[in-house]
Amino acid sequence: MTTFITQFPTPAGVPMEELHQMFVAVAPQFRSIPGLLSKTFLLAEHGRGGGVYVWESRAHAAAFEPQLREMIRAKLGVDAEITYFDTPVVVDNLHGQIRTA
Asked: In a structure prediction context, what are the per-residue pLDDT tens digits for the chain, which is 101 residues long?
C-alpha cells in the first residue's frame, strides 16, 4: 500500500465553512477512483488544506496524481505539495480490521 498526503494553501478570504462545503460537494467523485482505498479531507485554521489518500499501490497513486493536481488548481487556484509514503500497516477501527501490505 501507498499513502500520499497533499497540502496546499487555502484561498485568502474564503471562510472555513465554505471550504468544508466544497469538500463535501466533491467527495463523491473519489468513490470510483481505481486503487483508492480511502481519502480523508483536511482543513486547518491557519490557512492550509489537504488530504490523506491510501492506495492499493504506488502505481495507482501515481496514475491519479496529475488529475488531482489539476483538480486542486482548477477549484482553488493553488498548487498542491504531495508527499508519498510506503504504508506497511493500516489499523481500521471502524471496520475492526488491520490491513498489511
From this structure: 999 999 999 988 889 999 999 999 999 999 999 999 999 999 998 899 999 999 999 999 999 999 999 999 998 899 999 999 999 999 999 999 999 98
Asked if residue 36 lies in contact with residue 64, where contact means CB atoms within 8 angstroms, the answer is yes
Give the total number of structural domains in the chain: 1
Residue 20 main-chain phi, psi, to 5 deg: -60, -50
Sign of the Cα pseudo-torsion (73, 85, 61, 22, in order): negative
CATH of the domain at 32: 3.30.70.100
β-strand partners of 6 = 51, 82
pTM for the whole structure: 0.92
Say how many Å lie between the first and final Cα of the chain, rounded: 5
What is the span of the domain harbouring residue 75?
2-38+45-100
Distance CA 63, CA 2 (A): 13
